[in-house]
Amino acid sequence: MAIKKVVRMGDPVLKAPCLEVSEFDTPELHALVVDMKDTMHAENGAGLAANQIGVNLRVILFGFEQNERYPEAPEIPETVLINPIIEVLDRSKEIAWEGCLSIPGMRGLVPRYLSIRYSGKDEFGNPVSQDVSDFHARVVQHENDHLDGLLYPQRMTSMDSFGYIDELDAACALDEKSLPCEDDRSEV
Ligand code: NI
Questions:
Q1: Rounded CA separation 75/21 (Å)
Q2: Which ranges of the chain does DSSP label H, i.e. alpha helix?
């Protein structure tokens, strides 16, 4: 399969709501999932949505093993989630730094629900469901937003905490909330 070019903010495919997948275990769907995995791994991402490689379908991928760029983050099993449904389990939110492969080089402080239940299907059509919290919940909310045409700046409550990583690092702003100043390089 192939490493695909990641679409950047400004491309209309990132704004359009994605379509539900109706057929599972097809060669086309398996090929899409492999392309997404190849691309996410090549970019050192923590997650990826199908429309980030130009495919307008409700398919997300997330997860990583111990990541030297994200030493504080616990391992998340690699998960394919199709037609996801998110249920909020705890209305409280946490603010933390977030990046996106479609907005390279930047970070912003984004509030997200602390605890959610996601459900959907895998590429074979098997049901998938899990209760997750903290960073895991953040990544899933971020990727699910992509499917609705939303990028993380649209979830930010203040543009004061939005900038280029190098500049934020120089100001040591990134160590003020949740993530380490020097080692946070993963994109979701
Ligand atoms: Ni993203």
A1: 28
A2: 27-42, 134-147, 165-170
How wide is the angle at C-alpha 42 spanned by C-alphas 41 and 43, nearest 5°? 90
Strand partners, 86: 118
Query: Is residue 78 in a domain?
Result: yes
Tell me if the pTM is above 0.85: yes
CA of 99 to the centre of ligand 1 (A): 7
146 CA → ligand 1 middle, Å: 7
Residue numbers of the domain that contains 174: 12-181
Residue 110: CATH number of its domain = 3.90.45.10
Q: Indicate the number of domains in the chain.
A: 1
Answer whether residue 180 shows pLDDT above 60: no
- 25-57 confidence digits (pLDDT tens): 999 999 999 999 999 999 999 999 999 999 999
| Structural domain includes residue 186 | no
Question: Is 4 inside a domain boundary?
Answer: no
Active site residue ranges: 143
